[in-house]
Amino acid sequence: MKKILFLAFLLTSLFTTYAQEVQWASRVVAFSSEYQDPKMPKQYGAAQVTGKPSKLPLFGNSPCAWRPSQDDNASGEWIKVAYIQPQSVKQIAIAENMNAGTITRIYAYDLQDKEYLLFENKKDTSRMVGRMFNVFVKETTYKVAAIKIMMNTSRIKGVNQIDAIGISSSSEPVEARINISKNASTQAATQVKRENLGRNVNSPYDEICPVISPDGKSLYFTRAMHPGNLTPDQDIWVAQIDARGMFGPAKNLGAPINTIQHNSSFSISPDGNTMLLNNRYMPDGKLKKGLSITRRMSNGEWGFPEPVQINNYYNDNEYAEFSLAQNGKVLVMTAQRNDSYGSKDLYVSFLQPNNTWSEPKNMGAMVNTADGEISPFIASDGVSLYYSTGGLSGFGNMDVFVSKRLDDSWLNWSEPQNLGPAINSEAWDTYYTIPASGDYAYFVSDKESSGENDIFRIKLDKAIQPDPVALVYGNVYDAQTKQPLQASISYEALPKGGEAGSAVANPVTDGYKVVLPLKFKYSFTARAEGFMSAEEEIDLTQETAYKEIRKDLYLMPLAVGQLVRLNHIYFEQSKHALLETSFEELNRVAALMKENPTMEIQLEGHTDNVGDFMLNVDLSRNRVAAVKDYLVSKGIEEKRIQVKGYGSTRPVASNSNEKTRQQNRRVEFLILKK
């Protein structure tokens, strides 16, 4: 019990890090020199000293700290920093992350930039790896607007770095701690242990890049130097997970996914029919830097990977990782580009109408650092972004963090939070991935691994899971023969409309699957060549927890005499003016008629029985006439469309109450000619 209480106390202490009364430098006023790498000029620059510590409480080299250009400069190095809110000071806290002990003087500056000596050290200092150097002074009678630090870097041989410079009016020593979320503290306090996935997945070789399918049933991962690979390089493998959560023996995916070069996967779609692959696959079997996509064919086998076209894509780094959002419309990647903050940064790209991807945009300084960011993963909620970085205070040299998306630009993010010691260790922890249920997290670590790296999982407390979603699955059937069909699925959030995502129903691989955020109502549309599209709705507005929903869709073969109801046609109340929310569905009707240029239809309008009978007949006729006008405006010949208004004469439900009367107010079309 004492051990548990101590762990809880420790984690609470870590969580309250920046509740301390401390103000970190906001800008650099001037400096003596800074180390620069021409390829990554922002690393080790003077600007890295601003903000809270990026390395401490750990010590050692960090590109997110200021490093003077000369390591052993007896003539001195210095830096002057300013603060947003000038204040009285009792303490200066200097995060010396590498080879501490070179500070000789500390000066303060008031609002008029008058200089005051606060600290002087004329003695040589014994060598220290790093420290938070807390200098206590009598409380200043003036407000400190800036601090200047003088250093003699010849006192401590080697590279000297300063991580951050803070001021405080408190007598309590300022400490650097990890920005660990309260939820992560709860997870760690339960003492849930990381679980090695065992011999069916891990080997004496190297297992990396795990990708768990959204349904939690398949784990794709990369093996390096394994004797079962096509060559000693990297191949993609898959292990199936049974109902008990046990892993079957992993199988090599084989050709054409695996080649004689390095192969790895990044994302798998919810339906399991689409996968992102590292590199561009060339017809001659060679690979080039970039990204490819593979899709399952009608026989269930993976097709030859096709290149993904990202506008103005380049990456000056040897490595890259990608993550595709569950809706298939947003791509997050790591790359080193001209506007990167350090080595690899996080970038975002959006699917364009022509199926190319927009030029990558840097996702900003909130999630990117002067160090490297790797292995991004967009959770099923489309809001939670998990990734690993060495540029934020953590437990090891590469920790997993989470940040929440704040708007639809994908450029504004919450402050990243460390997932805590239940996930992160003093070693290398990366490639975090979660199924749609959010019950387990899978990740890579070299701590207690059977090989170079192993794949682990940990059961997640609900407090640390992403926002809950719904996994919707099912088949698309021929409505007459009841045989499963190969079909495309699209869905949109109502009432705003616009396609929110898509999927493919493959009869060989058990239909389709999509992941939907809760709190919305959705419309599903299934399409197959030679069939009328079918539409269904799912209401998730009242759901609060993860849920799996089966939704089968039935398509009628295109045939003369078939009557089709249009479920999302809306008019102004008691008028025939179309509302904009109707356009999405009417555009689908126009597309259908263009795909079938000889098809002729009759639009039929219906009302309930409230009001004057003849007025309702006129209203129903005028409404379908408005629908016809819209279709004609989209390029459909007028002679291919007839209209008929039935008023209240053909109800499909009772008119005794408003709920059932809504079913009678409708627009349908009848196929007159195929």
UniProtKB/TrEMBL annotation:
It is found in: Cell outer membrane. The lineage of its organism: Bacteria, Pseudomonadati, Bacteroidota, Cytophagia, Cytophagales. InterPro entries: 6-blade_b-propeller_TolB-like, Bact_OuterMem_StrucFunc, OMP_bac, OmpA-like, OmpA-like_sf, WD40. SUPFAM superfamilies: DPP6 N-terminal domain-like, OmpA-like. The keyword Glycosyltransferase does not apply. Coiled coil: none annotated. It comes from the Bacteria. This is OmpA family protein. It comes from Rhodocytophaga rosea.
